Amino acid sequence: MYDAAGKKTWEAELDIYDKVRKLASGTLSDCDNGLWGRNLGTKASLIHTAIILITMRKLFIALVFLTTILLGCKKSKQEGFPVSQLNWTAVNNGLPNTYAYLLDGVPINLVKSLAIQGNNIYAGTHGDGIYLSINNGNSWTPLNGSPSYLFNQIKYNCSINKIAVQENNIYAGTNNGVYLSRDTGKTWIGVNTGLPVNNAIYTIAFQGNNIYAGTYQGVYLSSNNGSNWTEINNGLPVNNLQVYSLAIQGNNIYAGTHKGIYLSNNNGSDWTAVNNGLPANTCFVGSLAIQGNNIYAGINLIFNFPNGGGLITGGGIYLSANNGSNWTAVNNGLPTYLYNQVKYNYSINTIAFQGNNIFAGTNRGVYFSSNNGGAWISINNGLPSVPSSVTDVLTIAVQDNNIYAGIDFDAYGSGVFLLQNTEQ
Length: 424
Hints:
By secondary structure, this protein is mostly beta strands.
């Protein structure tokens, strides 16, 4: 440091952190406080400038360090948040609790489909109609006008395979056709002109004004809210027309069948198989979901026993980022089944998204991934659990921070469970 006359009064050596390590000459008392900030000539100005630069550098380093910490915290929440520690809660007040069976031997209170319309949550059961909740599942009310059919002059509620919402219209895909409600489910009308009689509807998807229905007998298209339907099956497998899942990405329509995945880019007029990388044997694609450029396919575990021999096709999830041209298994952490000393993945019934988070409903509970399916962890705390029993998650719906799961739990009952996840 220099005094007003330009005479050096003291100097210091700095370490690599810009802290004073020692005085090279003089003492701190030799430095006149009045010199700080004054223009004292070339040398003093250089020293003053150096001090300012050092201070600015320290401030910059501090800001970078703080920003790194904040970003790291955010990243750790997105990628490392302990979602597995979250708990599911049963939200079944008002839902049927009887485990009665229909003619097909399936319990009527099994929740097969969930859908969200604003604050409304709809739960479709196998044979007890549709239920509505307006308070996050805390209570449910039966919709008395739920789709129904007559058998031997007895009225039965339809099995609700899919509930799909398009603005004010609610569509129910049932084992007895398509039904439409325009008044939040209070009343329903059948909209089946052009559909085969008693055709099971497995899935429904929307593309602008077009509505696509995946059925036991292929894909059908309606452009007038279901008033009329047209068959669009050119290119689909002739002997296995069942279409269990549909997903739409721009102009591309993907159909999940009993023989893999088919793609149409002309409103369903023509379909082409896109199965490269999927299991070679019979491939039952029970669910399809799209997140950005990624297409996820949920495969069902299948057993066939031709001539007394066992043939098995594993389940699991497959990912395509190139319009279905290639598929890659993303099953790390998903549950497996051991058969003839070979591990196979269990069935994937449904796939849903919450921001970057992916939830997969399997017949061994719910699994979660935050890295495009690169790794999965189970999040089953609070779900029914009995050794050797099956927790079959048939449907998942997301409403902001709330994740709802429709559960079938063998003879121990079914219902809806809620998981609240604020980390996205």
